[in-house]
Amino acid sequence: MAHEMKVVSFCLACAGVVGRGSPRPTAGRPSPTAPSLAAVDTRPQQAFDARGFYFPTQPPTIKGHRLEWLELSRYHASIKLSSTAGDSEAVYIDCGRAIISPDTLEVTCTGDAIGSLTMTGAFLDKKGDFRNRPEIGENGTIVLETTVRYKGLGGPQSTKVRYRYSNQESGN
Q1: Consecutive sets of 10 residues in the chain, 172 residues long: mean pLDDT of each?
Q2: Hey, what CATH class is 52-166 in?
Q3: What whole-number distance in Å separates Cα of residue 63 and Cα of residue 18?
Q4: How far apart are CA 32 and CA 23, in angstroms?
Q5: Are 114 and 82 in contact (CB under 8 A)?
Q6: pTM
Q7: Cβ neighbours of 50 (radius 10 Å)
Q8: What are φ and ψ of residue 138, in 5° steps?
Q9: Please, which residues have CB within 8 angstroms of residue 61's CB and are 6 or more apart in sequence?
């Protein structure tokens, strides 16, 4: 028991509650130098989940191809393009690793049809987990905004793009 009291006394002295001339609490009031204990949330934090398909509200045209959708998985992205001339099949481009968080989306896609295309932006809805929130897809809620940059005929081009979410490739 004596050992336990020494440990407590040592800890209180380290915290500045006793010793070193600290005033003692008076009549039910804590000492102004007493340490405060804050509640700490020890529950595991869930990663931002943005998996699914994002459809541009006004699809940009990049070198004769219209951006149909952007697909995000946990750390990966891909896009689907269609020819504006209607003379070829859809083009799917695996964009590789993506940086995805509530405040950041960074995707770079490279393909023969478009060269290099970069999308940078942020989610307007910071909650994520759109797959489990049917009201998001059903209402056509805009959840993402990016700037799409690519090298066009006259040099670098950029356009702002807003996206609605769907958990299906068809957008329904």
Answers
A1: 44 45 51 50 64 94 92 93 84 93 94 91 93 84 95 84 87 62
A2: mainly beta
A3: 73
A4: 8
A5: no
A6: 0.70
A7: 24
A8: -65, -35
A9: 67, 84
